[in-house]
Amino acid sequence: MGQSSVRGEGTRRSVPHAREQGRPGGTREDAPAAGTEEPARPAGERGGPGGTGGGTGGAGRRGATGGRRRAGKGTGKGAGPRAGNGAGNGAASGRGRGAAKGRGGRRRVLRWSASVLSLLILGTAGAGYWYYEHLNSRIKKDDLTLGKNGMPEHRANAAGQTPLNILVIGSDARNSAANQKLGGGRDTFDGPPLADVQMLVHLSADRSNISVVSMPRDTMLKIPECKDGNGKVYPARQFAQTNESLDRGGPGCTVATWVELTGLRIDHFMMIDFAGVVSMADAIGGVPVCVTKNIESRTSDGKGSGLKLPAGTHPVKGEQALQWLRTRYGWVGGTDLERAKAQHMYMNSMVRELRKNAKLTDPNKLRRLAEAATEALTVDKGLDTIGKLYDLADQLRSVPTGRITMTTMPNFYSTRQPGKVEPKAEEAEELFRMIREDIPLDGKPSRRAKPAATKDTAAPPAETVVTVQNGTYTDQFGSAQGRATTVAGLLEAKGYTRAKADTLTPRTAKTTVQFPSADLEGDAQAVARALGIPAGSVKKSDQVRGITLVVGADWREGDSYPKPKPTGKAPGSNTSRADQAGCMEVDPNFTW
């Protein structure tokens, strides 16, 4: 049978996501116990099955006879050159939270700290290879990603160097005696784990700087389809709380969620639990923290972390370290943003302490550090030995503390899910663009990355079908009417006469050009170039069967794609440097 000469016939109809049930977010409520606190497509795109292309004569460009594109399964005349893998989003059953307030806050989250980054800086630094096999046996391993789309590729800088991205996860799992001893609602001791701290650590290609981006645990976003090691499939969720990703097969699903959001390649993950935070603080003799006034984190109804410290700088360890990291009531403002600020301060201090400790020659103390680090960690299989951890730590340790910059992903309080937050479209995309392009968050120079090349050759515009969707909707501004039609017209003017506006309106912060398989990547990149869309916004997706341009909230108006903001310090909140000390400002209502 002949193939259509039109590239891109047969776009899959997207499947609306079924209403999901269960808890709206993954948060376990605050409890007053001591020491605790607390979202038919027309045929015509290249690559889909059953296109209506009328080619009954010879095969089209790169057709079935001698071409490099494989024929797809056809359900009509002239099957498209390549069939996409279509799979709609299924409904995911959540776990019933019940009414948090009505239950008096029995179920709650044990807060997680950003101190896990400090563990990265330590790695096994200073411990050498003592007890090599013993330490190796203590390291727990898991799959790097459970997503369907795989990983994007890094972009090399002018010297051919590539960056390194590590996702650090703090798990609230309490299925061990050590974690249960640290407190929290007993009815959740054997409950599913949640990823209550998520931090992306970006080591620049030239190894001159580190950028750290944390995501609030209450962030609502899309969690992609994940498949665990036993073959169980967790359908995609279009609007869910990010910390639930850990309970969808493991840390690999949290990694896949970050890839979906940022378009970044994640090279490794490292996960630590409650007991790990305490053991790390204990191993180095405490982490210095500072408060402006005496503080006691306890409300009149018994909520609060229980933290009690006099004014000034003091080392915290053991349960007191965990109390610091959980504290929300007691800081001026009393929100999760202040909690994140305190966590950043703790992390900065721990980085400095770990670096000092790594220089020690006391074998007993160094052994305790190595033992604590390996016992606390779950890592991907690419970091499954002391030698690999040591090599990673050595790279991270080479960066001066003055070039380690930490920030929180820009966000806003959601109107779709009160009490939760969503990524702030333009600012979050600018932040992730800087990471993708290896631009330091501190505004200082480094070698820039160059766009990744593809081996796939683009077809002439007139042979490439492009579906354009309007994804500009935000809670604040609504949808920019007619954007899909406008942008499709821009493509037609550039020779893409098969560009058509679609009626689907997905929500997306950033404009993307998506393609379903590697043999369409060159065409997708050509579409992006025609409109001035950055190469980093071109990505592979299993949600499309042909080239699909989704106009995001970053391009609500105008005929030209907005140029990136001038390079400078990154957008975000709670931005700080690891070499800077500071004090948390205490609310006068929580002093003693």
In short:
This protein is α/β, with parallel strands linked by helices and 592 residues long. 22% of the residues lie in helices and 17% in strands.
Structural write-up:
With 592 residues, the protein is α/β, with parallel strands linked by helices. It is 22% helix and 17% strand. It contains twelve helices and 23 strands. The strands form seven sheets. The chain has an eight-stranded mixed beta sheet, with helices on both faces. It has a five-stranded mixed beta sheet with strand order 19-18-22-20-21, covered by helices on one side. The protein is globular and about 70 Å long. The chain starts with 115 loop residues before the first helix and ends in a 15-residue tail after the last strand.
Output the keywords.
eight-stranded mixed beta sheet, alpha/beta, 592 residues, single chain, 17% strand, 12 helices
Q: Portion of residues in helices?
A: 10-25%
Q: What sort of overall outline do the alpha carbons produce when their principal axes are compared? A: globular
Computed structural class: alpha/beta
| Order of adjacent strands in the largest pleated sheet | 1-14-9-2-3-4-15-23
Largest sheet: 8 strands, mixed
Mean pLDDT score: 74
Strand content: 15-25%
Q: Can you count the beta strands?
A: 23
Distance between the termini: 84 Å
* Helical run tally: 12
Radius of gyration: 25 Å
Q: Spans of 5+ residues with little confidence (pLDDT < 50)?
A: 1-130, 182-189
